[in-house]
Amino acid sequence: xxxxxxxxxxxxxxxxxxxxxxxxxxxxxxxxxxxxxxxxxxxxxxxxxxxxxxxxxxxxxxxxxxxxxxxxxxxxxxxxxxxxxxxxxxxxxxxxxxxxxxxxxxxxxxxxxxxxxxxxxxxxxxxxxxxxxxxxxxxxxxxxxxxxxxxxxxxxxxxxxxxxxxxxxxxxxxxxxxxxxxxxxxxxxxxxxxxxxxxxxxxxxxxxxxxxxxxxxxxxxxxxxxxxxxxxxxxxxxxxxxxxxxxxxxxxxxxxxxxxxxxxxxxxxxxxxxxxxxxxxxxxxxxxxxxxxxxxxxxxxxxxxxxxxxxxxxxxxxxxxxxxxxxxxxxxxxxxxxxxxxxxxxxxxxxxxxxxxxxxxxxxxxxxxxxxxxxxxxxxxxxxxxxxxxxxxxxxxxxxxxx
Length: 403
What we know:
The chain is of the alpha+beta class. It is built from ten helices and 21 strands.
């Protein structure tokens, strides 16, 4: 009896030892496999960015997506998104990557026609808001009541900031006769407009003869055909006997530097300095007038706080060469230049692009423009009459000067 109990106790002890041994063995095996799997995961996550190229990082990211991502992967969208984020990480609001859709919209605007609501807008970087520079005369935006200074906050119910201006612009455009809802802030009011998109034919230069044979030319933007349009309109006014010219670049947010230099060359004598450029290597280059000047008459240039970039090149060139009297308010203060570098397809067609801040520009006397602006010769603010209508005191003062 005693021997049987002893045997049973022995068997129980052995069973316990075997169970403990098996449990420990299984635990060790599972734990080692877990560590092995975890090491594989950590190997991807902690890959050193300091020793790895962007190509290897994106390759590892793609490997993880292929292995684990539940949804479908669109290669084109991944590439576009990667390029967007890569360039945006610089933190320069003027350096950006244009997707094929965005680049197509920009090409349309530079050519001079597109389908949309017809409004010039600006990324007001100080507040990160989309601000209306001006609606195009006769456009759907103009007819709907959009005004200079309106802040666009939403397009079709989606909110956009200033740094998202390209996306917002693409949403404002679309097919002819389709409608878009635009929410704006005007002073203390929040207003919503339903606007029908139409084909917009952009005429950047308009002119007319004022009293006392004073010619008036307004330039809305400096695009591909603007210099030719300006030359044609100015020549026509001078041929009709204009004794002075008012050139209005108020609310002109800029455009192509080459176009601005062409227009400056129509006004300045040969070898006059238009501007001074400085690149990344601090190399300076003076851009000179080509000597095509044919406007041998007194000029007044109208400017305001929305005259930016290329407009400021023209303003600085005419002011410091004593070729015009500047009237209005201090300009915007964007004194850096961007160049556009395209990505071509197999047929050599540019399908997307990067706009890169490459140079800073200064006035002929090397005065800084960026974040400072250009002070007019005569500071004149707009006023309102008793009924609250705007009185163009700036234009009135320009006429007085030329009389």
